[in-house]
Amino acid sequence: MVRAVYRSKASEREGPTYRSESRTFQTAEDIIPIAELKANMSEIVRGLDDRPRPLVVTLNGKPAAVVMSPREYDLLSYQSRFVEAVNEGLSDTEAGRTYDAEEVFTEVLSELGHKKPRRVRAR
């Protein structure tokens, strides 16, 4: 199962550094209080496309929201769907819900209206 890594062992020694995939989370740059978001909303929203990471908004010192560009959201959403599909395929394989190549070709050809191909005899 694939999961995101939020805190590394190195970050426990060196202070709060989190990472998502290969992009390192920068506490000083990636966390802002909600008051700062409200005061600079248009500037922050305009700059989202240039940010390599999402922005965490805090309320009373605790994470309350994550703000990211639509492009970044689409990528995250695509990756999530991809991982889900891979995990579903792995589960199907483990449960024996698989088809061999001959079964697949027979099914595809029958849906296309073709008869089952004849086997060629080896001489």
Strand order of the largest sheet: 3-4-5
Q: How many strand elements? A: 5
Largest sheet: 3 strands, mixed
Secondary structure category: alpha+beta
Q: For this structure, what is the CATH class of the largest domain?
A: Alpha Beta
Q: What is the N-to-C order of secondary-structure elements (H for helix, E for strand)?
A: HEEHEHHEEHH
What would you report as the Rg, rounded to the nearest angstrom? 25 Å
**Amino-to-carboxy terminus distance:** 49 Å
Which overall shape is indicated by the principal axes computed on the Cα atoms? elongated
Low-confidence stretches: 1-22
Number of helices: 6
Give an account of the 3D structure:
The protein has two domains: 60 residues, YefM-like fold (3-Layer(aba) Sandwich); 39 residues. By secondary structure, it is α+β, with helices and mostly antiparallel strands. The chain starts with 8 loop residues before the first helix and ends in a 12-residue tail after the last helix. It has a three-stranded mixed β-sheet. A two-stranded antiparallel sheet has the order 1-2.
